[in-house]
Amino acid sequence: MRRSTLLVALTTTTALALSGCGRDDGGAGDAGAPQTGEAVSTDDLSGELEVWAMGAEGEALPELVAGFEEQYPEVSVNVTPVPWDSAHDKFVNSITAGTTPDVAMIGTTWMGEFAGMDALDPTPGSIDTSAFFEGAQGTTEVEGTSYGVPWYVETRMVYYRTDIASEAGYDEVPTDQEGFQEMAAAMQEQEGVDWGISLQPGQTGSWQTVVPFAWSRGAEIATEDAYTLDTPETVAAVDYFGSFFDEGIADANPPEGQTEATFTDGSVPMFVSGPWMMSLVEDFAAEGGEEDFGSMYDVAPIPTADGGESSSFIGGSNLGVFADTENRDAAWALVDWLTQPETQVEWYDMTSALPSVQSAWDDEALTEDEKLAKFGEQLTTAQAPPSFPTWEQVAAAFDAEMEKVAKQDLSGEEAVQTAQQQAESIGTGQ
């Protein structure tokens, strides 16, 4: 299955009863369930809805929501595409000015900040949050209350060249971190290979590679009310990350934008990334005359250590309803419709955005691709960072220390102690 790109993670009843994916009308009363908002009604929906969505999703969404307008002909949906690079500030300014849309696509790491500004409407109890991947649902919850639903998801896995791995004596990727590093070193010894693996050497977003190594050792990077970046498990994971650079297995100064080229030519036969890279590497190879590149690589889960369970970062985007909406029932009806399994599969066909609803993954469109199915399996254990409003600031501080680990030989102990001190200085924002 070849796709040009993979984009960066309702029925009418009196109460918004949901069907087809394990939803029911009793979510708010379930033991351990997050606190939820008031019920909504889909009787006689009418009026206009303003929806904001970022990037390519904003461009494609009008075609999809035409189906919602057919189901609710008295409701008109206006979608405004918003560039990603200005989206955060646009949202903050609109919250301050009281000019928010009714419904919006919201970055998962923004939920805590916006909820802390009292800008989001709590998710109705009629939505069964167990329908979603657990890690994705967790990105909507702030201090025990859900403020939206996961819309689409993504996670990270190890990409590796199966042909080069075979030459190095490996038929499959070791599941333990020590064995995984040994495999990377062995692949580096093969003809034409310059580096055993590509790992992001710090800078924005590098935590999305390093923290999964920690999670896969059993680390917890936060409690309910504090950051805990300096645990022994995280120290060990950072040292492990740094050892790839110390031992010359990974390049501490890789050229930007060369992953497709170096992977397809075999000079760097492993890297860690999301599902969108499948189409990118296959299309790049096809442009160079290699039409069957899909058979030359595979994906594998994040390796574990010390008895941990493989766990990766879960990303994607959520859908939220803003508290100032004047058409709350219709707004939540739209959100509900967008997260029905059949709608999610249709959206995947249109954009390749992976469904957040677990039952949607039973559809043939997703099960027919073996690599994609492996991403679906990794999603079942993937985790999200804490929903504290300050997470992005703390992540930036962590990324800066990871760059020192990769390029200046900083130890894991020094790196996480500094990151923890900065996290404590920044605070959780709660």
From TrEMBL:
**Transmembrane residues, as ranges?**
none
Recall the GO molecular function terms of this protein's record.
Answer: maltose binding
According to the UniProt entry, which residue ranges have a biased composition of type Low complexity? 413-424
| CDD domains (alphabetical) | PBP2_MalE
Instruction: Cite a GO CC annotation.
Output: ATP-binding cassette (ABC) transporter complex, substrate-binding subunit-containing
Which InterPro entries does the entry mention?
A: SBP (IPR006059)
- Could you give a single Gene Ontology term from the biological process aspect? maltose transport
Q: Where is this region: Disordered?
A: 20-41, 408-430
Q: Which organism is it from?
A: Serinicoccus chungangensis
**Keyword terms, alphabetized:** Signal, Transport
Q: Which family does it belong to?
A: Belongs to the bacterial solute-binding protein 1 family.
Q: What is this protein called?
A: ABC transporter substrate-binding protein
